[in-house]
Amino acid sequence: MPELPEMENYKKLLTEKIAEKTIMNAMIKREKSINVPIKTFQQQVHSQKIISIERRAKHLLFHLENGYILLLHLMLGGWMYYGNEEDKPDRSIQVELYFGDNSLYFIGLRLGYLHLFTKKEVDSELSDLGPEPLDINFSLNAFQDLTKGKKGKLKTTLVDQKFLAGIGNCYSDEICFEAQLLPTRTMNNLNDQEVVQLYHAIRSVLPTATEHGGYMENPLFTNDQKTGGVSNFLKVYDREGESCKRCGATILFKEVSSRKCFYCTGCQH
């Protein structure tokens, strides 16, 4: 499932491609991927300019000229492609936003969705999300306050969207590795220095992953050289049985609360 770096990468690239462009039409091939009748969706997005694209947690928000917002959550298996009829992927497309020469195709939205909301409705929909870990105001002091009284495992706490917004299976493991902490440790057993290490790991891993384009397998457009570039930089995620690049020990895998978890017992403590 795409996480903060993947969606931030999409936001930046799509801003270059479609910001200030007008949606000429919308094709809905799977009604369950939207939240209103097809006709209503088409009427509200037709001839609407995309004013801006925003990311919140694992969501993208496409702000339209008429005040409506398209709220995207790709969930498991969802991805996007921007191009034309000739170069689009030979895959099942659930929603297509047509911009003239090119379209934005939403693919694999079996669990994901593209919902049409007012600003008030979006605020309500996202009201349970925790703070953005890369927000300029998310200071070490703010993180220390956030961790007070937390008792869950590091793994399950980091992926809790009510605790922090945007972190999932992949980057929770990478953050724990960067902080040299086992993901099975509990939050209330971390000492002050370990909390500091965890904070700095969050603020290091997520922007680095974003810079390398996240881990999505499919390019966003033809000749997209950025999307998916982080795979070679991951230290532990999906590297079971490989040697740790930091200490040489074997990277292990286990399930933590039914979630995949990769770590190194040689240098994570």
TrEMBL record:
GO molecular function annotation: 8-oxo-7,8-dihydroguanine DNA N-glycosylase activity; class I DNA-(apurinic or apyrimidinic site) endonuclease activity; damaged DNA binding; double-stranded DNA binding; zinc ion binding
Any one biological process term the GO annotation gives: base-excision repair
This protein's record includes keyword Chloroplast: no
Residue ranges annotated for the Formamidopyrimidine-DNA glycosylase catalytic domain, each copy included: 2-106
UniProt keyword annotation of Lyase present: yes
Family: Belongs to the FPG family.
Name this polypeptide is given: Formamidopyrimidine-DNA glycosylase
Species of the source: Salirhabdus euzebyi
